[in-house]
């Protein structure tokens, strides 16, 4: 299959009417400096042209695009006693994962260098950035308009648009992606033929046309709708992990599981699995007793969805993780929060994965933008749980749900955090926190209202809250940012 894709790719490039800013043809000109400058120029030009990759091709006549063959052998080239590829990797920054391919044809040998488009910053060679202008390679700094446009394109680049699989037939795409879940979750009728299905998937950026009439599956399509994540190299490392421990530490693992379905098609199954692991707590209602999970389902759902949506997909070998302990539940995702964890309740979330977030919201897998965390914190308040803890640990964001505890068993840090979160929810509801409302939140009896007063005093001293009106002490309290 790979050889077929390479042949189809070369034919598509040959069928271009002329050299483009993201394709360059050579015969036997393979000086090391030229290759380095071309990688920089083509990577930058590809991003500017909204192309995923660029190509430098040897063995094809520039004017006619006829195959004439080349004697260039990349693996034999040495620069200052270093293999060519190693030397290029040292001279290029940030270095894209470029790859040399060799295709033997009846008309001659073709060497193709595939270069991913610039993704995080303009690609430089020997500390200089280059760009293609027409068929010429020139310094990017000589073209300020293109430099500005390139930075704009780079800032808009998203991991979701990357390619998880190339050169797939229609049947292969429909086997690899759970397209039925896509249509069910987006509430669309399933088209009557494969062409219609693939067009709809392409409209939502889950697939895109490839060379030779084949298809590409994007990272977005794979991560959301893979029938099996382990069929996508690299994407499989993003599977959600669930670990249950005995006790309050990580010494004894009770069970562990790693998902293998896409986030969207497998989300309800993931939630069912997590809920089955959560212990039950007896609740006494007005007429009868009933057993409930110790953590509110809406809180668990929103925090898991939040971890999936807002993770940093570019961190390799790391994925969302749900850990269940005797006294808490920790939900961790790669990448720190783009908002201050203290402001995670009131500020709209800033997502690294906008297409993923928008589609997950459209499929009702998570709440509308900016309301999910509010609902999780509000649910903890409603059931008088200790306040959730949101914190950054190294390069990860962690949300911690704490099991039910009486007020007397909460730490002072938890009580102050509860006051801050309560004040935040109140102001978002156009209200104010009072001594009385905090008593209700923490389950403090009226005769012990002085305990709430001490917590408010500590929260004021910590700078987390402030009086709503300094001249009217009974006006209540608001978070420091209000």
UniProtKB/TrEMBL annotation:
**InterPro entries, alphabetically?**
RecG_C_sf (IPR038475), Schlafen_AlbA_2_dom (IPR007421), Schlafen_AlbA_2_dom_sf (IPR038461)
Domain of life, per UniProt, equals Bacteria
Q: Ranges for the Schlafen AlbA-2 domain?
A: 19-139
Task: Read off the PANTHER family from this record.
Answer: GLPR-RELATED TRANSCRIPTIONAL REPRESSOR (PTHR30595), SCHLAFEN ALBA-2 DOMAIN-CONTAINING PROTEIN (PTHR30595:SF6)
Q: Per its record, how is this protein called by name? A: Transcriptional regulator
Which species does this protein come from? Methylobacterium haplocladii
- The gene designation is mloB
């Amino acid at each position: 299959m790979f050889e077929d894709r390479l042949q189809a790719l070369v034919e598509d490039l040959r069928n271009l009417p002329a050299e483009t800013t993201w394709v360059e043809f050579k015969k036997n000109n393979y000086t090391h400096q030229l290759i380095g400058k071309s990688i920089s120029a083509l990577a930058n030009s590809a991003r500017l042209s909204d192309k995923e990759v660029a190509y430098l091709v040897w063995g094809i006549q520039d004017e006619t695009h006829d195959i004439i063959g080349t004697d260039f052998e990349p693996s034999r080239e040495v620069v200052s006693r270093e293999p060519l590829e190693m030397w290029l990797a040292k001279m290029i920054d940030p270095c894209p994962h470029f790859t040399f391919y060799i295709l033997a044809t009846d008309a001659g040998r073709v060497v193709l260098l595939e270069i991913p488009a610039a993704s995080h910053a303009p690609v430089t060679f020997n500390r200089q950035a280059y760009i293609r202008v027409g068929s010429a390679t020139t310094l990017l700094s000589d073209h300020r308009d293109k430099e500005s446009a390139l930075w704009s394109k780079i800032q808009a680049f998203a991991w979701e648009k990357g390619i998880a699989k190339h050169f797939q037939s229609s049947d292969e795409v429909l086997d690899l992606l759970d397209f039925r879940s896509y249509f069910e979750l987006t509430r669309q009728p399933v088209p009557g033929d494969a062409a219609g299905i693939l067009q709809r998937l392409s409209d939502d950026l889950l697939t895109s046309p490839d060379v030779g009439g084949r298809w590409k599956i994007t990272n977005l399509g794979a991560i959301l709708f893979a029938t099996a994540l382990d069929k996508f190299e690299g994407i499989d490392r993003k599977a959600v992990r669930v670990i249950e421990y005995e006790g309050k530490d990580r010494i004894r693992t009770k069970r562990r599981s790693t998902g293998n379905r896409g986030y969207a098609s497998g989300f309800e199954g993931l939630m069912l699995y997590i809920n089955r692991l959560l212990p039950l707590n007896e609740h006494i209602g007005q007429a009868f007793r009933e057993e409930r999970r110790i953590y509110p389902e809406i809180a668990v759902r929103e925090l898991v969805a939040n971890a999936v949506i807002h993770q940093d997909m570019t961190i390799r070998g790391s994925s969302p993780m749900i850990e269940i302990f005797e006294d808490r539940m920790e939900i961790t995702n790669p990448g720190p929060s783009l908002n201050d964890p203290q402001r995670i309740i009131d500020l709209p979330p800033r997502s690294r994965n906008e297409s993923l977030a928008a589609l997950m919201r459209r499929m009702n897998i998570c709440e509308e933008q900016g309301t999910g965390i509010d609902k999780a914190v509000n649910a903890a308040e409603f059931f008088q749980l200790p306040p959730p803890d949101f914190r950054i640990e190294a390069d990860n964001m962690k949300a911690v749900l704490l099991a039910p505890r009486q007020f007397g068993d909460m730490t002072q840090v938890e009580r102050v955090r509860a006051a801050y979160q309560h004040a935040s929810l109140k102001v978002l509801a156009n209200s104010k926190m009072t001594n009385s409302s905090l008593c209700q939140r923490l389950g403090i009896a009226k005769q012990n209202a002085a305990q709430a007063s001490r917590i408010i005093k500590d929260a004021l001293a910590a700078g987390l809250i402030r009086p709503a009106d300094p001249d009217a002490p009974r006006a209540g309290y608001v978070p420091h940012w209000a």
